[in-house]
């Protein structure tokens, strides 16, 4: 178990810590809890679902990487399947601040990359910033989404983001978490195929510049990341950030990356290549392989 996770576990109420330990120490722990696991944790700890989620926030925040702020934010996205997905903020020394991942984006992307079809709520240990409120307004559940904060009554996203600007203002009916399947051709290299699969499922209704990333880990397996656009453009999550979220939540250091592949569309109106290369370089990862393809 990584030291910050162990530290967070030690700070949990004793009954919860005892019940959580077997999950957190399992090699297969992937920073999420199924509905059955949540029920078992509630039974063992005597906590309501909301109090359990509050108690798990420090576990989520223990995944934070904060070389710039040392400010640890933890979030939990509640999937419609009943599974809870942890997330934490991620900062990149030597890269522009725009590359930062917020905890809410991490938890939500974690659920999306795990093929959850929608969310019911998001819990965070600090009030969500404007950028995160806007990011959440892109979700297919934006009208029903509940925001949970410790010591605050649950409120709808629209309580936190009145008079919202969203996809409809740009004439887009698609929303984030709607199933996507862009018709990319296949490729002989399995890692490139993984990046193609991610690009195919990416969400880019504004530019149609679908893109995905695959990061090979220890030359054995990989994690992928999908691009997620936003109506307000800036809160869009690049595919590299999406993949780095999954890498971190699966417990791998950036040094475990042995190859990085970006797939994007040939002659698209925007490109992730230079920003992804720069962020990877700041992390000490070289080089980025870029494959550009046309849609079939
Ligand atoms: O809603 C918020 C606000 C801030 N942060 C992170 C971003 C950055 O890493 C640090 C300081 O802003 O906190 C979040 O994760 N979520
Ligand atoms: Zn935020």
From TrEMBL:
<feature type="domain" description="CMP/dCMP-type deaminase">
    <location>
        <begin position="48"/>
        <end position="168"/>
    </location>
</feature>
<dbReference type="InterPro" id="IPR016192">
    <property type="entry name" value="APOBEC/CMP_deaminase_Zn-bd"/>
</dbReference>
<dbReference type="InterPro" id="IPR050202">
    <property type="entry name" value="Cyt/Deoxycyt_deaminase"/>
</dbReference>
<feature type="binding site">
    <location>
        <position position="132"/>
    </location>
    <ligand>
        <name>Zn(2+)</name>
    </ligand>
</feature>
<dbReference type="InterPro" id="IPR016193">
    <property type="entry name" value="Cytidine_deaminase-like"/>
</dbReference>
<protein>
    <recommendedName>
        <fullName>Cytidine deaminase</fullName>
        <ecNumber>3.5.4.5</ecNumber>
    </recommendedName>
</protein>
<keyword id="KW-0378">Hydrolase</keyword>
<comment type="function">
    <text>This enzyme scavenges exogenous and endogenous cytidine and 2'-deoxycytidine for UMP synthesis.</text>
</comment>
<comment type="similarity">
    <text>Belongs to the cytidine and deoxycytidylate deaminase family.</text>
</comment>
<feature type="binding site">
    <location>
        <position position="102"/>
    </location>
    <ligand>
        <name>Zn(2+)</name>
    </ligand>
</feature>
<dbReference type="GO" id="GO:0004126">
    <property type="term" value="F:cytidine deaminase activity"/>
</dbReference>
<dbReference type="InterPro" id="IPR020797">
    <property type="entry name" value="Cytidine_deaminase_bacteria"/>
</dbReference>
<dbReference type="Pfam" id="PF00383">
    <property type="entry name" value="dCMP_cyt_deam_1"/>
</dbReference>
<feature type="binding site">
    <location>
        <position position="129"/>
    </location>
    <ligand>
        <name>Zn(2+)</name>
    </ligand>
</feature>
<feature type="domain" description="CMP/dCMP-type deaminase">
    <location>
        <begin position="186"/>
        <end position="296"/>
    </location>
</feature>
<feature type="active site" description="Proton donor">
    <location>
        <position position="104"/>
    </location>
</feature>
<dbReference type="InterPro" id="IPR002125">
    <property type="entry name" value="CMP_dCMP_dom"/>
</dbReference>
<dbReference type="InterPro" id="IPR013171">
    <property type="entry name" value="Cyd/dCyd_deaminase_Zn-bd"/>
</dbReference>
<dbReference type="Pfam" id="PF08211">
    <property type="entry name" value="dCMP_cyt_deam_2"/>
</dbReference>
<keyword id="KW-0862">Zinc</keyword>
<feature type="binding site">
    <location>
        <begin position="89"/>
        <end position="91"/>
    </location>
    <ligand>
        <name>substrate</name>
    </ligand>
</feature>
<keyword id="KW-0479">Metal-binding</keyword>
<comment type="subunit">
    <text>Homodimer.</text>
</comment>
